[in-house]
Each structure stands twice: as C-alpha cells, then as structure tokens.
C-alpha cells in the first residue's frame, strides 16, 4: 500500500493542502487521534494516517465508529485559510470530492446531509473533521474518513466490495485503490473549495445531495429540504398549505441537531427548540 500511495503522492498530490508524510498502522484507537498526537510531536501538518483497524473509531456527534479490518480508515491533516465558523466547509468539500471521484468509477455514490456517503440509500461511509482554532481561524484541521470496503455493516449500511460484486464491472479492485481514490477525492474537494470558492463547491455538493426535496416532519409539521448553507446548515421550507400555526416558513438546522433517516424513512423531529 505504501508504495502505491507514494507513487501517486509524488506525481499527483502536489498541492499545499496535500499530505507530505504517510503513517501506516496496523491498529490504532482512532486515526484522527493518532494524527493529532503525531502533530503534537512535530509531524508535518499535512500528514496522512491510515490504519487497518481502529479500536475506538470516532464518529460524528460523539458516536463510535465501529472499525474492524476490511474497512478504510484514514485521516488527512490540512492547514486551510478558513475561519472557524466555516469549518464545516471542509466536510462538505471532502464529501463532494470523494463522491465525485467514486462516481467517475461508475459507483453511484450520493451525499446524505451533512457528511455521509450513501450508495443505494445505505451508508457507505462518513467524514469527521476536527479542528484547532486560534483567534477565530483554523490553525490545523484533521479530516477523517471511514468507508465500508469489505467489513461487515448493519442493515442500513453498504459495503463497497459486496455492491461491486453485483455490478458488471468492478472499477475499484482493492482497498489500496479505494484509498488512493479517497485521498484524491479529498484533494479534489479541498482544491475546489480553495481555488473556486464555496459557492461553486456548494452547488456541486447540492448536485449530489440525496436529501433535496425530501420531506421532514418537525413537531408534526411537514417541511421540505431545499438546500444547505455555506456553513453547512440544512435549509428546510414549510409547506404554506400547512395549518395556520406555522409562524416560520423556513428554518436552518445546524449539523448534529437532526438526523435524516436512511432507506426513505420519514424523518420526524419532536420537542424541537429553535
Ligand atoms: C460519521 O459519523 O459518519 C463519521 C465517521 C468518521 C470515521 C472516520 S474513520 C477514520 C477517522 N478516524 C476516526 O476516529 N474517525 C474517522
């Protein structure tokens, strides 16, 4: 794996946000945490950490990311010129970049707001971006990505190797190839954000977002997902034909405040405080 990655690394990853030092482990608690530890010990700010398994993988909102062998677990360090308030843009960029690269391999990946990669309505992977901030600016970011390759998944999950087995053509033939594709996807998403800006990135992200037009139920009112803001908030508009008690025709929901369902399950949100 190292050789494959280093070959690609030298020829194609020549961008300032791009990793310059690769650390491969058999088993770590969390590749994000290992990268933070390495950074503390003076590692290059654009380092990558990859592990065969994680024993305490971290998911969004404090969840655990179950990480047995067979999955892809990696973290990439970057130093973006970004305000802390815009940190979610790194997740949007990475999600779009990875999904776009996999789609180029004829894998019809979509994005489920805010940070999930989905295939046939099931979760293929997720992204966890962590940042260090000083005076309102991000001084270091770690983008962690987990993708189900050959590992077991729950009913709402999808593993790429099994999905490909049902397809006429297998574009991604190994975990190493998936790793390269994901690293290039992150690079491409960050490039888009840094060079073309958030408006362009966001319109590309929205093109791949599976939730657009989806109905969500909030305190028994029906809303429709119409977009995502530059800070990653979900934009929901209420149907104007709903009962009169609606006073707010639209709301913006921060990542982590609601969870959209899988497999066309309607999303119901109650006891909402907004
Ligand atoms: C999610 O909750 O959807 C995000 C999951 C992110 C998991 C990846 S696996 C590699 C990196 N290291 C971690 O501990 N988490 C991320």
UniProtKB/TrEMBL annotation:
Record EC number: 6.3.4.15
PANTHER family: BIOTIN PROTEIN LIGASE (PTHR12835), BIOTIN--PROTEIN LIGASE (PTHR12835:SF5)
Signal peptide (residue range): none
Top-level taxon in the UniProt lineage: Bacteria
Cited CDD domains: BPL
Protein name: Biotin--[acetyl-CoA-carboxylase] ligase
Residue ranges occupied by any BPL/LPL catalytic domain in the UniProt entry: 12-209
Keywords tagged on the record: Ligase
Species per Swiss-Prot/TrEMBL record: Anabaenopsis elenkinii CCIBt3563
GO cellular component assignments: cytoplasm
GO molecular function: biotin--[biotin carboxyl-carrier protein] ligase activity
NCBIfam families for the chain: birA_ligase (TIGR00121)
InterPro entries: aa-tRNA-synth_II/BPL/LPL, Biotin_CoA_COase_ligase, BPL_LPL_catalytic
């Amino acid at each position: 794996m190292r050789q494959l990655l280093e070959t690609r690394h030298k020829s194609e990853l020549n961008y300032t946000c791009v990793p310059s030092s690769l650390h491969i482990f058999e088993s770590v608690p969390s590749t994000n945490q290992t990268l933070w530890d390495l950074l503390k010990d003076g590692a290059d700010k654009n380092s990558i950490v990859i592990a065969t398994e994680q024993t305490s993988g971290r998911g969004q909102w404090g969840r655990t990311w179950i990480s047995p062998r067979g999955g892809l677990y990696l973290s990439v360090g970057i130093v973006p010129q970004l305000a802390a308030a815009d940190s979610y843009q790194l997740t949007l960029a990475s999600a779009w970049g990875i999904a776009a690269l996999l789609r180029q391999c004829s894998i019809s990946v979509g994005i489920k707001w805010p940070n999930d990669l989905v295939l046939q309505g099931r979760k293929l992977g997720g992204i966890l971006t962590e940042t260090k901030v000083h005076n309102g600016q991000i001084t270091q970011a770690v983008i962690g990505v987990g993708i189900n390759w050959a590992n077991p998944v729950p009913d709402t999950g999808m593993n790429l190797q099994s999905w490909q087995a049902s397809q006429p053509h297998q574009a991604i033939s190994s975990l190493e190839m998936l790793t390269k594709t994901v690293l290039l996807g992150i690079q491409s998403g960050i490039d888009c954000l840094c060079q073309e800006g958030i408006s362009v990135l966001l319109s590309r992200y929205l093109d791949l977002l599976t939730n657009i037009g989806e109905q969500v139920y909030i305190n028994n009112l029906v809303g429709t997902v119409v977009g995502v803001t530059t800070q990653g908030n979900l934009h929901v508009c209420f149907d104007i034909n709903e009962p009169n008690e609606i006073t707010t025709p639209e709301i913006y929901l921060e990542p982590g405040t609601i969870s959209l369902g899988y497999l066309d399950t309607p999303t119901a949100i109650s006891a909402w405080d907004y």
